[in-house]
Design brief:
The protein contains 19 helices and 18 strands. It is an alpha/beta fold. The strands form 4 sheets. The chain has a 5-stranded parallel β-sheet, sandwiched between helices. Helix 1 (about 20-35) crosses helix 2 (about 35-45), helix 9 (about 230-240) packs across helix 10 and helix 13 (about 305-315) packs antiparallel against helix 14. It starts with a strand and ends with a strand.
Length: about 575
Amino acid sequence: MKKTWKLKELKPKNGIGKQIDFKDFYEKVKDKVKLSETLLRLLFLRGITSHIDIIKFFKPQLERLYEPFLMKDMDKACNRILKAISSKEKIMITSDYDVDGTCGASMFHLFLNEFGVETEIYIPDRETEGYGISINAINLAKERNIKLIVAIDFGITAIDKIEIANSLGIDFIICDHHQPQEKIPNALAVLNPMRNDCPYPFKHLCGTGVAFKLIQAVCKKLNRNELITKYLDLVAIATASDISPVIDENRILINAGFDIMNKSPRPSIRTLISKIPTGIVNKINTTSIVYSIAPRLNAVGRLGDAKRAIEFLLCEDKEKLNQLSSELDDTNTDRREMDQETTKQAIELFEEKYLNENSFSIVLHKDDWHPGVIGIVAARLVEKYNLPAIVLSTTNGVAKGSARSINDFNIYEALKQCEDLLIQFGGHFYAAGLELKVEDIDRFREKFNLIAKEKLINKDSSPDFEYEVELKFQEIDPIFLNVLDYFEPFGPGNPNPIFMTRNLIIENILKHFKNYCIIFKLTDPSSNISFEANLPYETKLVENIKPGVSCNVCYTIDVIHWNNFPIGKLRIKDIKFN
């Protein structure tokens, strides 16, 4: 589906809701910060409208983290952890099987070990137990006389499971970030900034981020603040991987975590860094997390036992790390092949059976699709068609699926309107999980599409592609690249800037990795300046990548430092041939 390109509009508002004009902003700050108009425009598009905002953006500091006790139930959770530390009580940690969950479980285990507290880590099996707190974990805790369970990255909908735990004399502390339903579980403490009754000022922490706030609270009570920075690498990986908004407190946490990993990574992270292909990036940033580190940690949870990711993260033995790293690589390769094949099947199914003028959403089901890759496939469908997408497979006779959405559509609220057809669901604006009876899929597809139609009927169905600045290659100089590097970390709320350049010439093909990417040289004939470009493997586009072809491109820029000199490499987002 051909994408239409358009320049992103400037719509920041001040504190009283009045729209701010970019020219006014530019005139006020240009002499104070000495940045180019292009760079100031990028800042303005991120809602940065004053000199003070610019300083905070480029200097995110740990001193600006919010007081943890502002979070609802934090005092209860903190006191219970302090009691467990004092009595050396064994604690069970249970978490989701994705990167957010496994990083959170690893972090909390390391923190408790600082005080000699023994832990039992329980990660539910994706296929046999599914998402959420497992009854098997509660039964194991009872069997081993464990009286406290800390749940990370899930639990906000586990009302019945918490009641069972209460009946067995087991306390629960829930550290979650997903959208709560009307009823909150009757746990000892439910830490979740998304709670309507939670006054915490920042609502977009990931699950590991919420657990980190609990660690911060305990450290404050024990006057052990030096411990806080020890876990910021795991917080940063989890937050970046979970596609949480990279604004406010998240920007501070990720920036600090990246800094730790670049200066003194823990042995497991150092091993993962060594797996990043030479020339892609030469430091930890959002790109290296999303494309290299997170997929390896995620793969074992998608296709096997997520506890292997925790074993790897906690390991300090070099020989064992190399062995575990090879397992992560092999599993990730299997995962990549599986999600490519499943994506191909999903596209064929949608276009052959469901795509028409009334398609305002995508709901696809196939019994044998692996549940570990359907979330990735849903995300690929969203990117391709710019429609909310749900992909379902069958597990134990029940259709279980992953949902992903677009900017204009709250998929959690849409699922809530369909809850009469669902066994269960949970999630947030952009992503969710759900279960329903196989025989209800057609009815659900119809109802969900009507909801999407009502919301999206006036939206252009062609996937508009927004770029932030039209750029000339001669503008991409070392000063520009150095400043752009400080825009990291990227993510929702602070996306990697997308640039557009016209009338470029493809000079020659440098490398061609089948089914992965093609690397080629792009030249601006007006200045004779060239950059290396990387295009993800898409057959229709790749076929036209030939020397001498003229094109317009939309792209992001990866900043590589070589002997302290910045080099820009283009990551192509879309291309149009002249």
